[in-house]
Amino acid sequence: MSTYVITGASRGLGVEFVKQLKDKGHTVIACARAPEKSDALQALVDNQRIHSLKLDTVDADSIKAAVEKIHQLAPGGIDVLINNAGIAGERGQDTLTTTAEDYINVFKTNVTGTSDVTRALVPLLRQKNTRHVFNISSILGSVENTTAGGNVSYRVSKAAENMLSRATAGQLASENFVVVAVHPGWVQTDMGGGQAPVTPEQSIRGMLSVFDKVTQADNGTFVDFEGKKLPW
């Protein structure tokens, strides 16, 4: 069994990750800004295999404190990091109406937060041989597939996160890391909305199947929850 760290684990896809990984018998360290406020998450926590702790991905002190706690919970290292924390930004805004403040706010979580958490946890990942990092991205970050300007702060942030994934994969390839950007599908969550065609259960089941099958050859790829390779 493996040890997973998941960010953004208090709701939506994050909680479903915890649930399905618990069912599979893995150890999970579920991180969120306020994990104690999530009834769904706390119902899964047993403080044996499933732990929750506070981690605000845009706060350096919070990341440092969380990493110290993770080291206590998993002194032998962690196998998998799932960077799931993300925000949508101002919906309905386009390239002509999105402000610098909105770009910066979304980038702090979706790009620099992912970078800071990954950098902080690489030493613990190095302690194991698995060394998998999955960044939950979006097809909306695909430059090739973009033809409209809506939700631009989110789109641009996910394009940047994809570049971060690719660059991290290249940098850590010699250490046998596998870093993959993953599109979870259009999912029925607070972010995706009720009209989305994919349930959280379907999305997570698919992603975990993909995660279980990755090899070094998949390092630096961009795929969806069914394993289909996507255009950058």
Automatic annotation (TrEMBL):
SUPFAM superfamilies (alphabetical): NAD(P)-binding Rossmann-fold domains
Gene Ontology MF: a single term: oxidoreductase activity, acting on the CH-OH group of donors, NAD or NADP as acceptor
Pfam families: adh_short (PF00106)
PANTHER family cross-referenced by the UniProt entry: SHORT CHAIN DEHYDROGENASE, SHORT-CHAIN DEHYDROGENASE/REDUCTASE SDR
Family in the record: Belongs to the short-chain dehydrogenases/reductases (SDR) family.
Protein name: 4-dihydrotrisporin dehydrogenase
